[in-house]
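Predict fold of Bacterial Ig-like domain-containing protein; 708 aa.
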Amino acid sequence: MRPLWKSLSRTSAITLALLATLHAQAPTPTQTALTISPSTAGTNTAIVLTARVTSAGSPVHPGLVLFCNANAAHCEDAAILGTAQLTSAGTAKLHLRLSPNTYSLKAVFQGTPHSPVPRQPSTSATQSLTITGLSESSVGPVTATTASSGRSNLSAIVGGLGTSPLTGTVSFSDVVHNGTPLTLGTASINALPTKAQLSPFTLATYANSFLQVLSGDFNNDGLADLAALAYDDNNQDQNLGTSNLVTLLSNGDGTFRSTTVPLTTEFPPAFASGDFNGDGILDLAVYDAFSCSITPMLGKGDGTFTAQTPTSIPSCVGPPVLVADINGDGIPDLMLSGSQSFSNPAILLGKGDGTFTLTVPASSIITWPPTVLRDLNGDGIPDLITTSENYTSPGIYPILIYTGNGDGDGTFTLKSSIPYPHYVNSLDVADFTDDGIPDLIVANSDSTLDLLTGNGDGTFALKPPVSLPGALPYQIAAADFNGDGKEDVLIASTATAPNGPANLKILLGNGNGSFASPPISQNTLSYQGFTLGDYNGDGIPDVASLLYTNNLSTTVFTQLVEHTKQATIDNIPLQPDTDHVVTAHYSGSTDYKPSTSPPFDLITFPNVTAKLHFTSTGFVYSRVTNTYSGTLTVTNTGSSAIAGPLQIGFTNLPATITLANPTVPKNEGFFTIPGGLLPGKSAQILVRFNNPFNASITYTLVAYTGAL
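Predicted 3D structure, encoded as tokens:
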């Protein structure tokens, strides 16, 4: 029913707690059986995993079922393909799509220690699933480094949208002066550990300002969709604005088709998803900041929803909205953790019919975003991880661990207060050491990341920090981005330098509590939060983010995650004083289609960049033409003349930025100074960038002498 990709931010966190054995009222034994239909299928085929849970031959309901990779050591994190609630028939269904491979799967019923009839957990026998066909591949532009005089090393990154290992060969070819392609050499894909990268942006703009977006399969077609809360602000009075629910149903390629329906809520800044009435369809719970209430919206299975009666929230405790089975009865509950000023969070215990009963913890609980619910001590009851400002100790921001009491009423007890010396911007929970015990990954406001490894009892040991030079992380999420079964971290960050670009980094986990260095980094368009979901059905989580282009519209940009390998040929002679057009062709394999890189202009004219000084002035953004224009001044700082034509190139531009007026459109584009430059002389170039999203512009300048 629901692929388990997580989205954490300072305004929202959705975490599904995993129930396990709990000795209470002598739980009765259960049996779980798994069927897969079809058990053999081609790519882009929706597969249905059905778990049937019984006790003494009778169907069990309610409860949660995990669908897992049976080959993994633990049914957790990346090993979980998805989860589903048991219906009244005692069945739980997960719809999903996977890339070509052979899979061993099992279903795990988590037990219900506090349901009217407590049930023991149980695990199904392993079943096999075979997906046939070929996954998509891609080859990035060729990169070149100088090996020796007149010789170069050429490399290309091959990406795969799938879970099978990348194998095969890459051949490099060169075209000079529009002549016949010349093969430069062929190399096998290296055997180094698999990496990951984000594909180019897929963009779509929608009316209204989106307040929050989350992922989920809202029409049960096996692909992750998006749901967004939108608010149309009234220019005269913001209290008269209108709110809408926008559902973006996935097309399977990173694009979406949208439907918009009005909401009865006045100002909905946050929501969460879960199957609140046990019918196998995802529902929503929408928080209204004006009326201080939660409105359940029951899913119809086609991406639309029906609003139910709202529940008032005392003291107007606000988001984030968390989902977990807090009292262990097999029914998802809600928590509004609010902020420290309200102290106790609000807990709404699910009744299993889409309605909730409000309860307030008897003991005082201090919460401060970010807040997460997850079973940390293995007792099957979700625990609460939050942060707090300790005003009696300046510079200390404790991480608070509250353990679920497991008494069936959703109460918590403070287990530990970790004296943490950093302000916490974001945190997530995952097993980074592959020992079956959850760990904490924490993003700090001082350009560092900390891993706290779990001891299995709700306490933690702090590992050495991971430095993120030049980046201020504001959101992180744990997932397996390169398909190796080990937890990685996606980091959204701003730049420490003024007006620097937003950035997404993938920090690959080694499975032992350490991370590969350096992180894989890519500039992005937005400082807003992201959500994860498998939008193309390859079994690897992808990324969707928001960009507020103005007060009236929001752009959603998605990036598919590819796992990658590299191929390199070394010491290749290239004709000097020439414009080479180099491409790389991937042969494909038994698992992946062949693909070819875009052409890359490799210039072997003399590079004179070091002899020049560049200054830019007067750059202004035009909202009418969506362009950014100014003047680039080029000065010859050397003691000798630079012969013409002098070519000034702009490289490494962000994905959505292009030069609007280049003289020579090579790579990102070049401007020509026909007569070159005498010593100490300058030339001015009028530069105009196409910048439709008013994104930060960064580039690298390079200069050559010669006619391109």
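The first strand starts at residue 31 and ends at 37.
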